[in-house]
Amino acid sequence: MEGTVSLHDFAILPDGAFVAVRTLTDFKVTFPNGTAVTFNGSHDRVWTSGRGDNLATNNRYTFRGSMQGVSSTGRSFTQDITKPFIADFYCASQGYFARTYGTVELSALGGYPDRKRTVDYGSDSTKYDNTVTVSTFRRTYGVTAD
Fold this sequence. Notes:
By secondary structure, this protein is mainly β. The protein has one domain (2-144). 3% of the residues lie in helices and 60% in strands. The protein is built from 1 helix and 9 strands, in the order βββββαββββ. The chain has one helix at residues 89-93, and strands at 2-12, 18-30, 36-49, 60-71, 76-88, 99-107, 117-122, 131-135, 140-144. The chain has a 9-stranded antiparallel β-sheet. The chain is globular and about 45 Å long. The relative contact order is 0.12. The model has no long low-confidence stretch (mean pLDDT 89).
């Protein structure tokens, strides 16, 4: 990995939640086979519960934002969080996905501008499982991790 990850614009909201912005600038991930993806963009990270008690398992975050990327083969894409996703670390501590709610959409796929893909983490932020729904321009898949 190379590039810049910065955490900035820290604030405490009126409801006590802590917010920061994470920005990736020319953040490149190179895979063992030599291919790579470079990301640019930012996400707001709102720490909605568990702050200040030193227990990582009750931390909960809400994420919003977008990224743009390009692969080493020249394929570009945009990743938008279209429904803010929630990461619940109690859920993760029980062996499930931390992301319990929200939708991420991949679009503007280089070479295939009308072929968006979505990843839906669910619509119930209190339901803990290892499933997501992935939709492409042709099909919808339920994906479960063991």
